[in-house]
Amino acid sequence: MILTTRLLTLAALAVVASAVSVQLVPPALRGVPNSVSEDTPDLEGRLTDIDTIVSTAQIVEQKDGPTADSPPNQPISDTVVTAVDGELTEAGAATPSNSTSNGRRTLPKKRRAVSDYNLVFSGTGTRSTDRDASIQGTAYLTFRVIDNSTYNVDACLDFCSSEPKCVFANLYYEFNNERLDHFDREKSNLKCAIYGDVHTAVEKTNFGGQQSYSTGNSLTYIQQSSGWASKDLLEPDVPEGYELVFGPLDGANNAPGYMGFAFLDKYDVDACARECNRRGADGNGGACQYFNIWRAVVSGVPTTYTCSMYFIVADASTAVNTGQGDLKVTFSRGYSRKNYLIDGGFEGYTECASFCFTESYTNWVASSPAGGYLDASVFYFKTYARNGHGSALLGSATFADDKSGTLSVAQPLKTEAGKKYQVAFFQNSAFSGPTFQAKSIVQVLWNGKVVETIKPGFTTWKFHSVDVVAVGNDILAFSGGSAPAWTFLDDVSLWPLFQ
Ligand SMILES: *[C@@H]1O[C@H](CO)[C@@H](O)[C@H](O)[C@H]1NC(C)=O
Ligand SMILES: *[C@@H]1O[C@H](CO)[C@@H](O)[C@H](O)[C@H]1NC(C)=O
Hints:
single chain, 9-stranded antiparallel beta sheet, elongated, Fruit-body specific protein a, signal
């Protein structure tokens, strides 16, 4: 009985196999894929949407400064996102990208001295009729009250120098403020407000006029409001997991692979890196791989800090957008995400000039289970690749069997133990058409353990990702394929998720 069933099954298999082999030329024989990438979208076409950025910059409101009743010595708040893809966040600011500096300490910069500052504007005198105004500007950090026995510029600039993010200080007297006059322990009406961006006299828009005392009707007013800017604008530290590509320039990228933008309330490259890391992947283009951060100056006033994201790495050659109308682009810098994987595009396999394949080369090693033949391999052939000429194949390249092979990195990865990474890759299982591709399978192995199983069926290039935690010297591998349900892999990445 058992014998009969088995014979029948084998006979059925033989029929299917011969039918299939007639129709299907396997990849090893340079078979033509059922579906060539004509139907993949035009990735080059998605350029930076500068119009939306400009129109959003006209309405975003993220200027700030001390008010009559704000307490001094508040900690500097985390960078907040004030707009996402043309929509302002709550109150032009909300969604604090929970950062608290991820425990990473920036190295102390060279300590600035008072002589490292320039006077940007001076204030009025202090006669009873003099009236001045304090700054309401972007990238407000915090304020202190300073000993008011003199107009203490040095103490204010020392305060700015002590804060790594500070590049500008606004020093002024505020009168008729009950809190300053009586409640605060410092007993001083000399306020020193610090900022992460430089401001000018046109931004002196806070004239006081608030009722602070509970009795009487004298309103707050301001005198002798001066502004001081650090001579060197701070060169930001490169965010972890990224590389500086260019900048600072006065041009923003107009580049393909655009994924959208966020406005930040400070020029904060770490916050922009976080936005890029957290940006949902584009189904066709994949993960964010590059960001462009720049300051928008509208009618001469710093207004917001744009963080544009891309799934294609750009460079200075497309940093050509200097502004539009009254908006000027300044301090534009580009950063690309570091791929911790060597040769994730299989471009390092260069045995031939148009068509060849192998089980192993310098960067990747394939293996087949017992009795299997060429169940994983790497191809040099433009037609099979998503990018360039290299791609990997899971499933017997010659159609010798229907076993699943394994493709592994040749060298352990230079990962940091305990840190989180994302494995990202593109997979294509369209070669033999919808019927024969129904059983497609891909597994991601991290140190030999399956961390993800995908049963994609029939599909052209599709993005996938899985988060992993490193133990150090980790081994990444892919297994799968079951000819004729072949799967091609390309553009494999390992992104750090430290930010
Ligand atoms: C954000 O950080 C604060 C403390 O820094 C923490 O209390 C809070 O739970 C965090 N929120 C999220 C969503 O991680
Ligand atoms: C210093 O500030 C305190 C509190 O506002 C005020 O009472 C005092 O008159 C100020 N002193 C000078 C010299 O301005």
